[in-house]
Write a structure and sequence with these properties.
Keywords: Chaperone, Isomerase, Periplasm, Rotamase, Signal. GO terms for molecular function: peptidyl-prolyl cis-trans isomerase activity. This is Parvulin-like PPIase. InterPro entries: OMP_Chaperone_SurA, PPIase_dom_sf, PPIase_PpiC, PPIase_PpiC_CS, SurA_N, Trigger_fact/SurA_dom_sf. This protein is of the alpha+beta class. It has 3 domains: 156 residues, Triger factor/SurA peptide-binding fold (Orthogonal Bundle), CATH 1.10.4030; 108 residues, Chitinase A, domain 3 (Roll); 104 residues, Chitinase A, domain 3 (Roll). It is built from 14 helices and 11 strands. A 4-stranded antiparallel β-sheet has the order 4-3-6-5, with helices on both faces. Strand 1 and strand 2 form a beta hairpin. Helix 1 packs across helix 2, helix 4 packs across helix 6 and helix 7 packs across helix 14.
């Protein structure tokens, strides 16, 4: 791979071998570029060959240029990045990747990547986040905006929820349209050939979700931009979209999972239940059946707690009786779900006949929590969206005012 990238530089810039680009008098070396290509390949599980490295080199070089601009601006504004900052970020990467302490350095060594490569990637990311943090006070989210978001989510409550990952490639200049689209297509091709979505998101996505592998979590219908929601609605779990053009740039989405909608599910109900079961075989004489049903009826009339039912179960030696905690009504068998649907804490069902016997169910405890995101979560999401817009605007300004000399 080293000779592949060096050959590109040699062919295009004979007089500047060793320097891939200069950003405001600060060089980006060919070695920097080669090491980053190796890091991208290893972390994203991209099968790298000569053609792939040639195709990805310009995109990765552009990322290095952006990082150089971000670091320069942050340093100019007085935001420093300490070794402790970088070490904390490395620890977080290890936790998110399921690596043990020190596992990241081991991973780099196993793939022939210099440890400094990951530190050089982390440093501008932290510096830029510190700078953006100082811009957060410029963002104001009104209560009306939060109310509108909540109302949109409520109105879509009956529609499916989707667990989505994203990779976002911004188009900040109309002249970059073709280049960004080609980059997006290259990312999709890499994914089709087995590349890891989260790894590519961490390396290439310009969204704040990049740090989490592009994970957006479970989204209600209406929480995504219209073009993105329309694309997700047509996908099945496991699908990866083609590049989707929005007003901001190109998105690549992966649908991880989908949950069916429930128009009545504005709350998440959890039940602690006690089931008193009496076995009744198919050939049991009717008088014995009546006796066993009478035991259940007596328990229904006299039990004042789940412990009372438990005591009856002990007396009967009923091994199939017992307590279930934290279960959703949706996970209960149909007859049981219907029997407890309108019961509050301490309520007890009518007799329920099932295969092999009959039972009673008492609600030991019942909790209800809103499934809607709280107002603070919505505020934070809206702030993050505005902050991303400010960040792209700032980076566009830095590129416009910078001296950038690409030498390959």
């Amino acid at each position: 791979m080293l000779f592949t990238v060096v050959s590109i530089s040699t062919a295009r810039a004979q007089s500047t071998i060793g320097v891939a680009a200069v950003v405001n008098d600060a060089p980006i070396s060919v070695v920097d570029l080669v090491e980053r290509i190796k890091l991208v390949a290893a972390s994203s599980n991209i099968p790298m060959n000569t053609q792939r490295s040639q195709e990805m080199a310009p995109q990765i070089l552009q990322q290095l240029i952006n990082e150089k601009l971000q670091l320069q601006e942050a340093e100019r504004r007085g935001f420093d990045v300490t070794d402790a900052d970088i070490d904390r970020a490395k620890n977080l990467i290890e936790q998110n990747s399921g690596l043990p302490p020190g596992g990241l350095d081991q991973f780099l060594a196993q793939n022939g990547i210099a440890t400094e490569t990951i530190r050089n990637q982390i440093r501008p990311q932290i510096a830029w986040q510190k700078l953006l943090g100082s811009m957060r006070r410029e963002i104001q989210i009104s209560d009306t905006e939060i109310d509108d978001n909540l109302e949109r989510i409520r109105s879509n409550q009956g529609k499916p929820r989707n667990n989505v990952q994203e990779i976002f490639l911004p188009v900040d200049n109309p002249q970059d349209e073709t280049k960004v689209y080609q980059n997006a297509r290259e990312v999709v091709r890499a994914l089709e050939q087995g590349a890891n979505f989260g790894g590519l998101a961490r390396q290439f996505s310009a969204s704040s979700s990049a740090a989490n592998g592009g994970n957006l979590g479970w989204l209600y219908s209406g929480e995504m931009a219209g073009e993105l929601q329309q694309a997700v609605n047509q996908m099945q779990p496991g699908d990866v979209s083609d590049p989707i053009r929005t007003i901001r740039g190109y998105y690549i989405l992966k649908l991880l999972d989908r949950r069916r909608g429930d128009a009545n599910a504005l709350t998440d109900v959890r039940l602690d239940l006690y089931q008193l079961f009496v076995p009744i075989a198919a050939n049991t004489p009717q008088d014995e059946v009546n006796t066993k049903l009478g035991i259940l009826q007596n328990a229904k009339e006299n039990a004042d707690s789940c412990q009372s039912l438990a005591n009856v179960a002990v007396d009967l030696g009923s091994e199939m009786s017992g307590k279930t905690e934290g279960i959703s009504p949706n996970d209960l068998a149909g007859p049981v779900r219907n029997a407890v649907a309108n019961l509050d804490k301490g309520g007890i069902s009518d007799l329920i006949k099932v295969d092999g016997g009959a039972l009673l169910v008492m609600v030991c405890d019942k909790t209800e929590e809103s499934t809607l995101p709280d107002r603070e979560n919505i505020r934070e999401r809206l702030e993050m969206e505005r902050l991303e817009i400010l960040a792209r605007r700032k980076l566009r300004e830095l590129r416009r005012n910078a001296f950038i000399d690409i030498r390959m």
